[in-house]
User: Fold these one by one.
Assistant:
Number 1:
Amino acid sequence: MDIPSIRERLLKRRDELRQRANDASADLRHEADPLSADFAEQVTQRENDDVLGAISHSARAELQQVEAALRRLAQGRYTTCSVCGGDIEPERLAAVPYTDRCRGCAEGSRGAAGSGRVIGR
Ligand SMILES: [Zn+2]
């Protein structure tokens, strides 16, 4: 597991997401593009705002996941499933670098798929 390069990748992603969320928020505040006096134009602008709101929302949601992954990385728990305590598959982390659960737990109903550790026994 190449932790430094994963960390690098997560940091880069975090910056992209911050940028995207900030850009969308700035556009939503109409800093560079004040609301038009024309009603039809305003309708278009408000529709655009709905899209921007969705972009901003999804960027922030992913940003939280990326930040949580960076914290787990710093704590040495990056490859540990937060549900069953087992190891997260390296290929899964390569595909979804901010995931905090192994394939079995992510897929839910199939549970820990035998990779869980019973704690305290
Ligand atoms: Zn798991």
Number 2:
Amino acid sequence: MADIRGGDIDVLLVGAGLQNSLLATALAHHRPGLRIELIEARPAIGVEHAWSFFESDVPKESWPWLDQLIVKRWPAHELRFPGYTRIIPRAYCTVGGARLAERVEELPGVAIECGREAVELRPGEVLCADGLRLRAPLIIDGRGPSRPPMEGAAWQKFLGLELRLARPCTIAQPIVMDATVAQDDGYRFVYVLPFADDRVLVEDTCFSVSPDLDPALFRARALAYAASLDLEIETSIREEQGVLPMPYRETAQGLDANPLQRGEESALLRAGFRGGWYHPATAYGFPVAVRLADCVAHHFGANLDTGLRELALEIASQSRFARLLNRMLFQLVPATSRWRIFERFYRLPEPSIARFYALRTTLADRARILVDHPPFASWFRLPGAGGVRA
Ligand SMILES: Cc1cc2nc3c(=O)[nH]c(=O)nc-3n(C[C@H](O)[C@H](O)[C@H](O)COP(=O)(O)OP(=O)(O)OC[C@H]3O[C@@H](n4cnc5c(N)ncnc54)[C@H](O)[C@@H]3O)c2cc1C
């Protein structure tokens, strides 16, 4: 007879990554008493890397449960391009992978089972690799992103080194993009997070049409950049890398308009990267993951379908615009000129930039981005929109 467990679980979260860890935290905060089970294929929950985001990316209502996860907050951040440096007085925050795992382990009402792999998911039931069937009225699939290759997408690929310094560093705030570096493999920039006087993350990044990442090359470039900042490295503490999709076709890992699949008195929600809940133009998932976690926690029990449909419609409309920008960037702009698009974008008024990252662009923001965008302007022969500078 099949081994079946359930009956005492209200929500079953499959995959203990970013999305489901945030969901568990938000549900435990807003719905105390709920019985939540979290299953994870790996032997333990938690990752070594961190997730960063702009404070303005997440709604104010989320801070009561989100605040405890922040390991570092800087009041401003910086952008560097060949023509200018801009310091933007908007806070940048980091949530630590270890801190998130610790907090999830402490949550009341949340049972965690590691080393359990899900192989089949449907509304109300999950089949595990060892034949166990787990049942719950609501199943949330947070098994993470699909791996390359993916049709209709370009890639954000990066390798970061967290460095211990022998001498205090003088970098005061995150450098979110330093594009003054040699342009190679699409748009290339370096990302720098000064976690402490003696600890800094230096990440070499490309927005590229190819998912291939040569670790030795990226590592060497990150170290060369650290040397150019005059950082005296004692040791490299940690390395992280990623190849994340930047889709430009609607078919490439998009968001379902109706993300909740209904069964008989049960449901399945595809969440996180797996469900298309991320920003196509940054390949980052944190801000949308927070909004989805809050939405599920607020609407749980009643109006979940409506709440999710409304959020999905909003994110899908924003995502369509972001995909259009990706299409223009990767299909109309020569690889060596892509940095100029970003150089123009970051000259926009600060609130427009903030809304773009938060997936909350207004029609006026969109018009402004497009009119300022040389390939689009030349398509439509907009007078005075400006071309790519020589
Ligand atoms: C190194 C790195 C740094 C990043 N930094 C940022 C950042 O700073 N800001 C940002 O917004 N985004 C960042 N991202 C991108 C994005 O936010 C993350 O990829 C995010 O973790 C996606 O969340 P998720 O929950 O969908 O998937 P994941 O966090 O990948 O979680 C998926 C989980 O499901 C588990 N799993 C998979 N298959 C099964 C199965 N069959 N059964 C059970 N469990 C399973 C996995 O082991 C994993 O724990 C980063 C990505 C990487 C790789």
